[in-house]
Amino acid sequence: MENSQSQSKKKRLTQDQVRQLEKCFTVNKKLEPDLKLQLSNQLGLPQRQVAVWFQNKRARSKTQSLEVQHCTLQSKLEAALSDKAKLEHQVQFLQDELKRSRNQLALFTNQDSPVDNSNLGSCDEGHDDQVVVFDELYACFVSNGHGSSSTSWV
Which residues contact 115 (CB under 8 A, 6 or more apart)? Predict the structure, then answer.
């Protein structure tokens, strides 16, 4: 019974023992039986204690790795959300700018009502002549100083 009590009491590892175990762990994550015996004899520890140390070290290493991965993914998510918000802001800015330009064009061409903006994103076939006219009128409009001077994305 005295023998089982002495085996169940684990002694604390010294800094040198921990250092040697850590060094061995960097090379071998899994503990082979011959290495376990060698480390046990070299460090003066029971084989079971060496095996448990390796098992615990693998678990801690995995947890740390998962924490690092989580932080990396969290940073990437925050960056993606920030980029999304900026892009949404740019899209809104461009839609507003297009609406203002079309309304200015309608006023410039002496139309009584502003341009219908219901199909701002539409590029149907058969309107090439209108696009050319629009481009020419817009270029003329901008060159005369009527265009928006703000091209910043803010």
Answer: 102, 103, 105, 106
**Strand locations in 1-154, DSSP E?**
none
Q: Which of 46, 55, 65, 47 is nearest to 6 (CA)?
A: 46
What is the per-residue pLDDT for 35? 93
Alpha-carbon distance 92 to 26, whole Å?
53
Query: What's the token pair of residue 95?
Result: 């839609």
Measure the CA–CA gap between 148 and 142, rounded to whole angstroms. Answer: 8
Buried b (16+ CB within 10 A) or exposed e, 49-67: bbbebbeebeeeeeeeeee
CA distance 105 to 146: 10
Residue 36 near residue 50, CB atoms below 8 Å: yes
User: How large is the average pLDDT for residues 1-23?
Assistant: 75
Q: Is the dihedral of CA 118, 124, 126, 128 positive or negative?
A: positive
